[in-house]
């Protein structure tokens, strides 16, 4: 209360400037592409209000899949996971916004689609962990790492959406 009366708008502005704009790497996996779910999945992020900064249809080489999933190398499902991700084209996307990493994970839903909440992408559109249609970075650090791994600098666009001032005050 004392802060508000002494500093006026200073405190809220400071809080807003501390909110970090994050990047996340979202990928429609080969099953999502084959099942014709690309538009549906892009729409969910677009309608939420995040900013698309990169987009491409891409046949993932084995080496890239291995680098992307290097933390899962010891898992029993790892070989099948690499086969799955390289089995057909994926749609690679970079999305940007305050809180985008955690929010995208919520939009995507739990790893196991049968456990994922209705209303999430996996909850609505998939039935098995090994075919869970979409990937999303699990931390801001991995969001930056994966975006840099899947996109060249020139493939990412910095732009200001016309709706920006209608999404955040
Ligand atoms: P998430 O993609 O939800 O972040 P993980 O990082 O744990 O989940 O796993 C990466 C991907 O590996 C999953 O999305 C899924 O495609 C695959 N995967 C994870 N666990 C299994 C499993 N038990 N069997 C088959 N595939 C799995």
TrEMBL record:
Necessary cofactors: Mg(2+)
Active site positions, chain numbering: 135
GO terms, biological process: CTP biosynthetic process; GTP biosynthetic process; response to hydrogen peroxide; UTP biosynthetic process
Keyword Ligase: no
Binding site for ATP: 29, 77, 105, 111, 122, 132
Keywords, comma-separated and alphabetical: ATP-binding, Kinase, Nucleotide-binding, Transferase
UniProt domain Nucleoside diphosphate kinase-like: residue ranges: 21-158
Catalytic EC class: transferase
Enzyme Commission code: 2.7.4.6
Catalytic activity of the protein: a ribonucleoside 5'-diphosphate + ATP = a ribonucleoside 5'-triphosphate + ADP; a 2'-deoxyribonucleoside 5'-diphosphate + ATP = a 2'-deoxyribonucleoside 5'-triphosphate + ADP
Recorded family membership: Belongs to the NDK family.
Protein name: Nucleoside diphosphate kinase
Entire-sequence positions represented here: 69 to 237 of 237
């Amino acid at each position: 209360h004392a802060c508000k009366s002494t500093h006026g708008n200073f405190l809220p502005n400071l809080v807003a400037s501390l909110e970090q704009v994050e990047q996340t790497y979202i990928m429609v996996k080969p099953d999502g592409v084959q099942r014709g779910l690309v538009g549906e999945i892009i729409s969910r992020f677009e309608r939420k209000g995040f900013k698309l900064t990169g987009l491409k249809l891409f046949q993932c080489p084995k080496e890239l899949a291995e680098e992307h999933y290097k933390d899962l190398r010891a898992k029993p499902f790892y070989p099948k996971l690499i086969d799955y991700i390289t089995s057909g084209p994926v749609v690679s996307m970079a999305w940007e916004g305050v809180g985008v990493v955690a929010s995208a994970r919520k939009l995507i839903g739990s790893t196991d689609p049968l456990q994922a909440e209705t209303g999430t992408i996996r909850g609505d559109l998939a039935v098995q962990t090994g075919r869970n249609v979409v990937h999303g970075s699990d931390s801001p650090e991995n969001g930056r790492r994966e975006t840099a791994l899947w996109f060249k600098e020139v493939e990412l666009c910095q732009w200001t959406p016309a709706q920006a001032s209608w999404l955040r005050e």
